[in-house]
Design a protein that fits this description.
133 residues, alpha+beta, 4 helices, globular, Nuclear Transport Factor 2, Chain: A, seven-stranded mixed β-sheet
């Protein structure tokens, strides 16, 4: 009854694969790896913009790939929590060995278990990243 949630583990693995795949240099390989884990109607919502599909997710991280001299990666910093098809986790972006940003992501999966939506919030405390008016 209170055993491991294998569905949440599978989604966590998908998230981890996506976090690696967005930095793959080859367009063909990157899009193939992203498509493997995303629903056809996937939407990625960041503080900067809304991106559709694997191509959109790829574009969301293009500026980091252009800085190929830098070592940049994403990693989950919490377990993935999941219920009723929705999930959340905390993450950090590491640049040249130092944490450059931390945040939370929330999302959902479709009936087949593919990720169909991810909403990103930068910063671990609501409002801490807000721009002064």
């Amino acid at each position: 009854m209170f055993g491991r949630d294998h569905h949440a583990e599978a989604v966590a693995q998908r998230i981890d694969h996506l976090m690696d795949a967005v930095f793959v240099a080859s367009d063909r390989e990157r899009l193939a790896r992203l498509t493997e884990h995303l629903a056809p109607d996937f939407v990625y919502i960041s503080p900067e913009a809304v991106f559709d599909g694997a191509e959109g997710l790829s574009e969301a991280f293009a500026r980091y790939r252009r800085e190929s001299w830098r070592v940049i990666r994403l990693r989950r910093t919490s377990e993935l929590e999941m219920h009723h098809g929705y999930f959340r986790y905390s993450w950090e972006r590491v640049e040249d060995g130092a944490v450059a940003m931390e945040g939370w992501s929330f999302g959902s999966v479709d009936d087949a278990g593919a990720i169909d939506r991810v909403v990103v919030f930068e910063g671990l405390v609501p409002g801490a990243q807000a721009e002064p008016e």
